[in-house]
Amino acid sequence: MLINVKISEDKMSASVILEETSDNEKVNQKDIMDALKENGVVFGIDTDVINRICENPEFNVPIKVAFGKPAGIGLDGSIEFVDFEKGVENKSDKVDFREFPTHRRIIVKKGQKIASIFPPTKGEDGINVLGEPVLGKNGKEIELKLGKNVEKIDDEIYAKVDGILKVDNDTNFIDVEETLEIDGNVDYSVGNIDFPGTVIVKGDVKSGFVVRAKGDIEVGGLIEAATVISLEGNITATGIKGREKGIVKCKGTLKIKFAENATIEAGVVVFNEQLSNCKVKARKSITSENGKGVIVGGDYVAEFEIVVEEAGSEIATPTHLEVGILPELIEERNLLKTQIMLDKQNAEKLLQILKQYKILKEKGVKIPEDKKKLFLKTSNTLMVIKEQLEKNTKRFHEIEEKINKTKVNARIVIKRIVHPGVEVSIQGIKYYINKGMPKVILKLSEGKVVVGGYSE
């Protein structure tokens, strides 16, 4: 009986082949084990198979009797996003890269951690039938494409700017975009927007909604009775239909075709057609360009100049135009004036109470303890009011002095016609338009508002 041993090319299995040399030959386990040992097979020997061969031998066919242990394959590399609702990695319910919710607006801040990268792991080592180790295989590296606004530090990804997180699941691309684009309207399907970059709305901002951005805001349609605020940038829109509820504010320039019944604050206001029944405050100027350029109804305040084609209307719609003083100073002065008046009234009332207490004390009237506490509280309140009154009065005089010293070449230019009903104020000096006047420039001279002619 010949016992041949055949080892597979990868050394992960070994077979025996029996050859009968004479009749009625027997084979036993020891013979097979010796043959295997002679050929170096020392691992994964299946004695149950060998026993079956011994009991029912088959000749001239390979029978596998030893099996190696295959090497393991490690886990592929992966990325785990921060749970942006909790601000930590979601260990219990991982956000898989391929299932990243791209439909959600996820806003991140500069320096904020976005995700952690987990490298592939190495599979467990195996062993072949010769007892030789078979090294485990590594999992696949995750292929990521990082945009210019994200960075990888060690095995973590961080935002380099404030913006909206964008993830392309097809290309494994991660970036933080500084511009948020809304394809349609800002309405119930979108919700309010509070974004640290630039916002582009291709439709309208519907009534009751809020768009707030650190950078520029561009509205392709109308701003309705909504609130739109740019903290550091400019705002452009087709127009504003405020319905006395619309509020539009920006640090830079507001550019619109028209505005109706809206509250507006900006560095510069530029319009084409008409501003009607609005409350406008501009830190620099209000100007019209390339259009109808009409201001009618409402209050319009700018520090330097108001330049329009037409002011007021033929039916003498009340329209207030004011230049020469910063709108913020006017507002603060008015608030202080009101507060000082209230403080003086309250102080006088408290003084009367304390006078009554003094009279009672001088007469020797026994005053109950609760009344004494009331008078003490009144005295303390009066001290607080006096301190506040002194502080506010000082600030009020500082503003008045600043206004008086302001030497701004402030002017109001009406290129076509100013109608009766328009009230002009330049550095606090008022002037009323009683009859229509064409092409005028209004300036301050020697403490009076003077009217001069305007020419192109």
Would you kindly provide a written description of the structure presented here, covering whatever features stand out?
The chain is of the alpha/beta class. It has helices spanning 29-38, 47-55, 327-362, 369-405; strands at residues 2-7, 13-19, 63-67, 78-83, 88-89, 107-108, 113-118, 126-127, 133-134, 145-146, 150-153, 156-159, 163-168, 173-177, 179-182, 193-195, 198-201, 210-213, 217-223, 227-230, 235-250, 253-288, 294-302, 305-311, 319-323, 411-418, 422-426, 429-432, 437-445, 448-453. Helix 3 (327-362) packs antiparallel against helix 4 (369-405). The longest helix has 37 residues, at 369-405. It starts with a strand and ends with a strand. Mean pLDDT is 90; it is low at 87-96.
Key structural traits:
456 residues, five-stranded antiparallel sheet, 4 helices, 30 strands
Strand pairing plus helix content: what structural class? alpha/beta
Q: Judging from the principal axes of the Cα atoms, what is the shape? A: elongated
**Biggest sheet character:** 16 strands, mixed
Mean pLDDT: 90
N/C terminus separation: 122 Å
Beta strands, count: 30
Strand content range: 35-45%
| Sequence stretches where pLDDT stays below 50 over 5 or more residues | 87-96
Radius of gyration: 43 Å
Number of helical stretches of at least 4 residues: 4
User: Regarding quaternary structure, how should these chains be classified?
Assistant: single chain
Percent of residues in helices? 10-25%
